[in-house]
Structures are given as C-alpha cells and as structure tokens.
TrEMBL record:
Residue stretches spanning the membrane: none
Gene3D superfamilies found in the cross-reference section: Leucine-rich Repeat Variant
Descriptive protein name: Mo25 family protein
InterPro entries in UniProt: ARM-like, ARM-type_fold, Mo25
Organism expressing this protein natively: Microthlaspi erraticum
Lineage: superkingdom: Eukaryota
Length: 345
C-alpha cells in the first residue's frame, strides 16, 4: 500500500505562463543586470518560463499541444506587451532562452482569431518594433536571432511592406557588408526575402522608389567584396525577372549607367559572376527598343564584348546548349550593332 503526500502540480494556464514570462523579463532591470548573482537568478527564471512556453506550444513529450491554448498564448502575449519586452530584452537573455524563444516565435505568429493573426496585428499597431529588430544586426551577439525573427515576420505582406518602406531598410545595404561573415550572410538572407517573398508588395515598392533603390543597389554590384557582388547580382536577376516587375525590368534595361555596370561584371575574375552578369546583359542587348545611347555603347565596345562572349562558358552541365544558343543570339545582335551606319560614334 502506497501513500502520496504530494499532489501533482496543477498545469499552468496560458495566462499564468505569459504573466510569469512578463514578470521575469521585467525583473531584468538595470539594477539586476549589474548584480551578478541577481542577474543569474533572474535569467534562470526567464529560461524556465520560456521552457514552459515551448512545452505548451509544442507538447512536452507526454501531451500533444493544445490548439486553443496556442491561440490564447498568442493573445496574452499581445495583451501583456510581451512581444515588446522580448525584443527589448533579447540582448540580456541566455542562449537557452533565446533558443526556446526562436522555436516559439513562428508558432505564435501563425495563431489566428477568425481571419486575424494576433501577433501580426500587434506588430501593425507597433511597427517600431520591426525597426528595433532590424537595427539588432549591429549587435553581433543577437544579430542571428533577430534575423530569424525578422524572416518569420517578413512572411506576412503587411510587415514586409513596412520594412521596405521604412528608413531602416537602407541599413541592409550596410549590414550585408559587415566584416562578420555570418552576420552579413544572415542580413543578406533577410534582404533577399524582403525583395522576393511578396511579388505585389515588391513591385509597388520598386515602382515608388526606383531611383533611390537602384542608386544604392549599384554599390552592392560594384562592391570590392566578391560575395557581395555575386549575391547581389543573383538577387537582381531573381526580382527583376519576376512577371510583376516586368515594367521595372523594362525601365532598368534602358539605362546605360546600369548596362555599363553589368558589362564590367562580365569581365570579373570570377566565372560565376561572369555567367550571372551575362543573364542580365543579354536582356539589354536583346531589347528591341534599345535607346540610341545603348546601341552606341554596344557598337563602340563590340570587339571586347565579342571576345568576352566567345570565351564565356558555363562549364559542363545540362544547360550548356541553351546557354550557347542564347550567347550566339547576343553575339549576332552585337555584330549587327557594329555594322549600323547611322550611329554617332
């Protein structure tokens, strides 16, 4: 016969879990942070609470997650401003707490009441929190965590639209060239998502900010950093060739300034960059409505261009035949330009 002197503890409600998280985050005040023992204790409490949150959202190995509880957790996160606390205290949190937070972040963002994503609505009411996440790339200790959180936010069109149109968007042109390779790569992943995830949002943005955007983007294409040149050139193809951006592409290929940049990249020491540059250069050349200035540049430089193109090969692969066909068409068009008599050379 056995006796139990301890009743099993009652599972916490979503309200209790969120309140515990909020209280433990608030305990990370200035006084606590400067007192080592007090800080250690406070961080342990935060870690314990985020572990509880993860268990409630993902299951604890014994019980499956409860969908209604997940929604209630998201609602409480918004009601108690825990999203704001999390972002502003992220730099203080320990590794385990950050790991659990990242695991929970995407789950919370996906919670809906009716047709409304609760946490997305919270961000729409507090857009400045997205700015706070972006500037975290300046802090290498939390840059990768913030990058992951940002990319989850960017999956929602309204949040991506805000970042594209905010002053902080221009910071990405700095972040993608930071000396820390991991941080710069992560920033580029976020930058890429902003320009490729939502076609209509991106098209609207590029239409409204064409000149300012490409003025700054040119710096990436002409960067002294090989990785930056290669990634930005590939990304340029990705978003320029999307059907909703066809009007942007048509405008871009009328500009001699950008054709000269691409022609320079055709001479890059990297074959990968040369090949990527070719796929944009061919659009300038194949354009049936080439401006006179573009024709003149092609005619003036036809010998060097033809030499470059004859020596350009993608290497072995299934796309060889198509590449060679496209290259021959471009060579023919450049030769045609060189024979025109009415160009003012």
């Amino acid at each position: 016969m056995s006796f139990s002197f301890f009743k099993p503890s009652r599972p916490k409600t979503p309200q209790e879990v969120v309140k515990a998280i909020r209280d433990s985050l608030m305990a990370l005040d200035t006084k606590t942070v400067v007192e080592v023992k007090a800080l250690e204790k406070a961080l342990e409490e935060v870690e314990k609470n985020f572990s509880s949150l993860r268990g409630m959202l993902s299951g604890d190995g014994e019980a499956e997650p409860n969908a209604d509880q997940a929604v209630q957790l998201a609602l409480e996160f918004c009601k108690e401003d825990v999203i704001s606390f999390v972002i502003h205290k992220l730099h203080i949190l320990g590794w385990e707490a950050r790991k659990d937070l990242l695991h929970c972040w995407s789950i919370l963002l996906k919670q809906k009441v009716g047709e409304t994503y609760c946490c997305v609505q919270y961000f729409e009411d507090h857009f400045e929190l997205l700015d706070s996440l972006v500037v975290c790339y300046d802090n290498k200790e939390i840059a990768l965590h913030c990058g992951s959180m940002l990319r989850e936010c960017i999956k929602f069109p309204s949040l991506a639209k805000y970042i594209l149109e905010s002053a902080c968007f221009e910071l990405f042109f700095k972040f993608v060239e930071l000396p820390n390779f991991d941080v710069a790569s992560d920033a580029f992943s976020t930058f890429k998502d902003l320009l490729t995830k939502h076609d209509s949002v991106v098209s609207e943005f590029l239409t409204a900010h064409y000149t300012e955007f490409f003025d700054v983007y040119e710096r990436l294409l002409t960067s002294s950093n090989y990785v930056t040149r290669r990634q930005s050139l590939k990304l340029l193809s990705d978003f320029l060739l999307e059907p909703p951006n066809s009007h942007i592409m048509k405008k871009f290929i009328l500009e001699v300034r950008y054709m000269k940049v691409i022609m320079t990249l055709l001479k890059d020491s990297s074959k990968n960059i040369q090949i990527s540059a070719f796929h944009i250069f061919k659009i300038f050349v194949a354009n049936p409505n080439k401006p006179q200035e573009v024709k003149i540049i092609l005619a003036r430089n036809h010998e060097k261009l033809l030499e470059l193109l004859h020596n350009l090969s993608p290497g072995k692969g299934s796309e060889d035949d198509q590449f060679e066909e496209e290259k021959e068409l471009i060579i023919e068009e450049i030769q045609k330009m060189s024979r025109l008599k009415n160009l003012e050379l």
